[in-house]
Known about the structure:
7 strands; 10 helices; about 50% helix
Amino acid sequence: MVTKILIVDDHAVVREGLKQILEGVSGMAVTGEAGTGAEALKAIESRRFDVVVLDISLPNASGIDILTQIKAEHPQIAVLVLSIHPEEQYAVRALQAGASGYLTKDTAPDELAAAIRKVAEGGRYVSAALAEKLAFDPGSDIKTAPHEALSKREFQVLCLIGSGKTVTETASLLHLSTKTVSTYRRHILEKMGMQSNADLIRYAIENRLVD
């Protein structure tokens, strides 16, 4: 199944660059583009999209307002905000307005593709730093799961240990040393505020991270 993407950015060169990046990604197709919020809403009314990649700074309209309208009228569409503004300025507002993810425009191409894939599947994508901030900021009303603060490798280790694998078995499966896996395990426990493998297994099962 191909993920159909609408790119919304007021700079044609940015839209073209994103199209070139995503053209080479299996299972993704840029099937629409828009330079304004009005053009984006019109495109969404006339065609089906799975993911909207949305710039937060648009002429004659607030990207946040366009995001809110998209989610109100088409809640099934995932919106990934791609902005020049750093996370601390707009990310929380975007997530509160219904965005499935937030990336800055200096993001590497492979991370952009990974983010689109994740939000298309119904997940949320933010950087590890932002996920950790949201997880531990008592003033934030965005509910972020503790495991979203983990790095990609830490998440892999969590899932394997959560499925009942030992450190040695996990090291073998990931082609790492047992010492490295033990270090990852310690970081996971610290980040998630847990004490033992039993805690990780319980968490993985309760959050459906393992089969």
